Amino acid sequence: MKAPIVEIVFSVVNPSDVLGHVERSLLTGLLIAQQHNYTDELSRTQPPTRPRTVRRVVDLIQAHPDRQYTLGELARVAGTPGPSRPSGRPNPCRCRGR
Fold first, then answer.
1. Residue 35 exposure: Cα atoms within 13 Å on the Cβ side
2. Distance CA 46, CA 82 (A)
3. How far apart are CA 64 and CA 57, in angstroms?
4. Which residues make beta-bridge pairs with 94?
5. Cβ atoms of residues 97 and 57 within 8 Å
6. Is 84 in contact with 92 (CB distance < 8 Å)?
7. CA distances from 64 to 13, 43, 68 (A)
8. Diameter of the chain by CA atoms?
9. Cβ(54)–Cβ(80) under 8 Å?
10. How far apart are CA 4 and CA 77, in angstroms?
11. Global pTM exceeds 0.90
12. What's the pLDDT score for residue 62?
């Protein structure tokens, strides 16, 4: 007797990974198939317009993808308040471009 395809797939990959992909695919299909307030935005082919602050950060990271950035540095580039730490310690989170 042959094993059902679902059992074969689940024996090779993590079932929660597969179910997550299926869930996203189902929701994407429903959003595309059903008319709603955001249908025009979903069918738009150009990327969404980003605010100037976000664009500055994206441009910096794309210009220097090999460099590591702190959230504070990125906030300064964007011209927004940086992350706050109650104890005054630097934020350990580091962001790296691709």
1. 0
2. 30
3. 11
4. 70
5. no
6. no
7. 36, 32, 9
8. 65
9. no
10. 54
11. no
12. 92
pLDDT tens digits for 29-43? 888 888 888 888 877
| Joined tokens for residue 92 | 């350990």
Find out whether 97 and 64 touch, Cβ atoms under 8 Å.
Answer: yes
* Tokens coding 82: 């940086």
Output the six-digit token pair for 74.
């990125």
Place of tokens 């471009």: 97
Amino acid at position 69, single letter: Y
Tokens of 23: 């869930």
How high is the pLDDT of residue 92? Answer: 54
SS (H, E, C) the chain: CCCCHHHHHHHHCCHHHHHHHHHHHHHHHHHHHCCCCCHHHHHCCCCCCCCHHHHHHHHHHHHCCCCEEEHHHHHHHHCCCCCCCCCCCCCCCEEECC
The yes-or-no verdict on residue 95 having pLDDT over 60 is: no
Note whether 75 and 83 are within 8 A (CB).
yes
